[in-house]
Design goal:
Main location: membrane
Oligomer: single chain
Number of helices: 7
Keywords: Cell inner membrane, Cell membrane, Membrane, Transmembrane, Transmembrane helix, Transport
Radius of gyration: 22 Å
Function: Part of the tripartite ATP-independent periplasmic (TRAP) transport system.
Number of domains: 1
Number of strands: 0
GO molecular function: transmembrane transporter activity
Subcellular location: Cell inner membrane
């Protein structure tokens, strides 16, 4: 049956996004520690640590580019919501599915196609830092231009399948609805308590 493989695939894709998001979130702590170290070395010891300074840029790039899919998974992207919050779960699922097909997926494919030759060229020449003594791995950092759309496609596909599974009756709620119900205030219960 098709149901079981699709539900398993949703779990695998969303687990990948969750795992990578939690893993790279630790880089924010390391960024703070490295920035403090750079400031101490520069202002107290008069030592300019270029590799450390550049490592902050690398970590920031990784957090921003690879954290986008994790942010998408938890519906934390900035959203101009005029009508969406009033929609039923079914309409929200349909809107999210259409949004993936006509917005997210084409933009991600465009980014991959547009960046692929550039990233390959940088790997061929092994581009490094323009600063003396800087990190020699700029080509790896530029690979994030491909990692961003790929991870977004992975999470977008998971959400698309999750919503499809909901519409087919295989899941009780569409993607993101669990978080909405968990964080929503229990107004009905309070009213019943006051009237009871």
């Amino acid at each position: 049956m098709v149901k079981r493989p699709i539900l398993a695939l949703i779990h695998i894709l969303e687990s990948f996004t969750e795992w990578t998001g939690k893993l790279i979130s630790w880089l924010t702590l390391f960024m703070v520690l490295v920035v403090v170290a750079v400031l101490v070395l520069r202002n107290i010891f008069g030592f300019s640590a270029i590799p450390l300074q550049e490592s902050v840029t690398y970590m920031h790039g990784i957090v921003f580019m690879l954290g986008a899919a994790y942010t998408l998974k938890h519906s934390d992207h900035v959203r101009v919501d005029v009508f969406y919050h009033r929609f039923s779960h079914r309409k929200k699922a349909l809107v999210d599915m259409v949004g993936f097909l006509i917005l997210l997926l084409p933009v991600c494919i465009f980014l991959i196609v547009y960046s692929l030759d550039y990233v390959i060229f940088n790997w061929k020449i092994k581009e490094g830092s323009s600063q003396p003594g800087g990190l020699p791995y700029l080509y790896i950092l530029k690979t994030l231009l491909l990692a961003l759309p790929i991870t977004l496609i992975i999470q977008g596909t998971a959400q698309f399948l999750h919503n499809l599974a909901y519409l087919l009756g295989w899941k009780p709620l569409p993607h993101g609805a669990e978080e909405d119900t968990a964080t929503a205030p229990q107004v009905t219960g309070d009213k019943e308590l006051h009237h009871g």
